[in-house]
């Protein structure tokens, strides 16, 4: 495995020195098949899935990634993580050996595309909020990313919460008395998934984006948070913790798509403000130091939760047989031919080009050339949303 490290994962989560915790991880022959999109440093949920596979392998289990949907070929895993890709040959071998796999789907995956006999649904956001099914069969094992999510499906003890802020990148300024100026905000899903408008309080502030050509690197983002007075967010995001660990209070701006803070029980509300009141801002600033000390205990608790999950799911697997072999999903299995992909791509190009032209024209007429150039992210996401809508409708993914 390569030692390449791009800074998107804290080194401690790769090397995994947890011997001091004295945890019990039982031995078992059941492999794990973890379904996930390709690795990206931009998504906390995707990083959690890839790290879960890595941690299980480092702990001595046999875990594999299944990249889904199966339309990607390159750059799908992090080179420093132990995340082997599942192949049909491995599936066949496990079946011949009678080794029942434990298949883990994030909540955004619809149905059971692998026809797996033992399913874990890792609920990382409210069920149905960002796609996927709105309910699950009673036999599925539900695991929540936070207590708030576990409570939502009636299993408050099933939690696997991994705080993902990278302390190699996000840390307080060396001089705690250094002056902070201005603020910044993020509203990616709020604007581009829900189509909502931002509030005047963030007008003129620097917008933190992800996955855009001009998005800040993690290093630059850490520098921004270390010099900013406040970070506003319109949505639940791992950036909230990143900012707090840099000594910058995070203000959650309540809206119809943000009704509570996920992970509140775990993060203890340290460094957070719910709304922009003076009282909430004062609370956020006052509790910033506590967030630093609390972070390490959260990572330790994650491995304790992982131990409990493994014990619990292996207990369930022990009473189940493996009689129908899993078949890895392919484009043909999904009923998607190469010709269909080509036709969809051609349709998307025509549609997205038209949408981008209309969006650019609208911005130019309203704000002139400077406004047009300054709102590049709006144009980019107009094309992105066109692609997403078409793929969801035609591919039913």
Can you describe what's shown?
- The chain is α/β, with parallel strands linked by helices and 397 residues long.
- Helices cover 40% and strands 10% of the residues.
- It contains twelve helices and ten strands.
- Helix 8 (264-267) links the parallel strand 9 and strand 10 (272-274).
- Helix 11 (338-374) runs antiparallel to helix 12.
Q: Keywords, please?
A:
disordered C terminus; five-stranded parallel beta sheet; 40% helix; alpha/beta; disordered N terminus; 397 residues; Rossmann fold
Helix/strand layout:
Layout: H1 11-15, E1 32-36, H2 44-58, E2 63-67, H3 88-96, E3 102-106, E4 119-123, E5 141-144, H4 147-152, E6 183-186, H5 188-192, E7 206-207, H6 218-227, E8 230-233, H7 239-245, E9 250-252, H8 264-267, E10 272-274, H9 278-286, H10 288-317, H11 338-374, H12 376-395
Helix pairs in contact: 11-12
Task: Kindly summarize this structure in a few lines.
The chain is α/β, with parallel strands linked by helices. The protein is built from twelve helices and ten strands.
Q: What is the straight-line distance between the termini?
A: 31 Å
Task: Quickly give the structural class.
Answer: alpha/beta
With helices defined by DSSP (H or I, 4 residues minimum), what is the helix count? Answer: 12
Strand count: 10
- List low-confidence stretches: 1-5, 393-397
Relative strand content:
5-15%
Order of helices and strands: HEHEHEEEHEHEHEHEHEHHHH
Overall tally of structural domains: 3
Shape: globular
CATH class of the largest domain: Alpha Beta
CATH architecture of the largest domain: 3-Layer(aba) Sandwich
- Return the average pLDDT rounded to an integer: 83
Helix content: 25-40%
The side-by-side strand order for the widest beta sheet comes to 2-1-3-4-5
CATH topology-level name of the largest domain:
Rossmann fold
Radius of gyration: 22 Å
Main β-sheet: number of strands, strand sense, barrel status? 5 strands, parallel
């Amino acid at each position: 495995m390569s030692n390449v490290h791009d800074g998107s994962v804290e080194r401690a989560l790769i090397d995994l020195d947890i011997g001091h915790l004295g945890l019990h991880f039982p031995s078992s022959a059941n492999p794990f098949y973890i379904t996930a999109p390709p690795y990206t440093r931009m998504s906390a949920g995707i990083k959690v899935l890839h790290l879960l596979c890595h941690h299980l392998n480092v702990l001595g289990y046999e875990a594999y990634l299944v990249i889904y949907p199966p339309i990607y070929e390159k750059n799908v895993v992090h080179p420093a993580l132990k995340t082997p890709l599942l192949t049909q040959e491995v599936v066949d071998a496990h079946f011949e050996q009678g080794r029942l796999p434990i298949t883990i789907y994030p909540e955004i995956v619809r149905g059971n595309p692998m026809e797996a006999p033992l399913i874990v649904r890792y609920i990382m956001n409210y069920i149905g909020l960002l796609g996927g099914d709105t309910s699950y069969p009673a036999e599925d094992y539900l695991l929540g990313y936070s207590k708030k999510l576990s409570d939502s499906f009636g299993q408050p003890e099933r939690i696997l919460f991994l705080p993902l802020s990278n302390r190699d990148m996000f840390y307080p300024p060396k001089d705690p008395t250094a002056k902070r100026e201005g603020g910044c905000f993020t509203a990616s899903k709020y604007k581009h998934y829900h189509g909502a408008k931002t509030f005047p309080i963030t007008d003129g502030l620097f917008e933190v984006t992800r996955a855009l050509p001009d998005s800040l690197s993690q290093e630059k983002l850490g520098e921004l948070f270390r010099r900013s007075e406040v970070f506003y967010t319109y949505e639940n995001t791992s950036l909230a913790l990143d900012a707090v660990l840099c000594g910058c209070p995070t203000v959650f701006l309540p809206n119809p798509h943000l009704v509570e803070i996920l992970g509140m029980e775990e993060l203890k509300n340290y460094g957070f403000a719910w709304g922009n009141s003076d009282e909430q801002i004062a609370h956020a600033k006052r509790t910033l130091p506590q967030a630093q000390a609390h972070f390490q205990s959260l990572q330790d608790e994650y491995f304790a939760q992982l131990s409990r999950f493994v014990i619990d799911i292996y207990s369930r697997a022990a009473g189940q047989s493996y009689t129908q072999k899993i078949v890895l999903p392919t484009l043909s299995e999904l009923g998607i031919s190469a010709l269909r992909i080509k036709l969809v791509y051609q349709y998307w190009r025509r549609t997205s080009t038209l949408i981008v032209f209309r969006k650019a024209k609208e911005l130019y007429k309203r704000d002139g050339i400077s406004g047009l150039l300054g709102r590049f992210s709006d144009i980019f996401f107009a094309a992105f949303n066109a692609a997403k809508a078409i793929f969801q409708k035609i591919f039913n993914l």
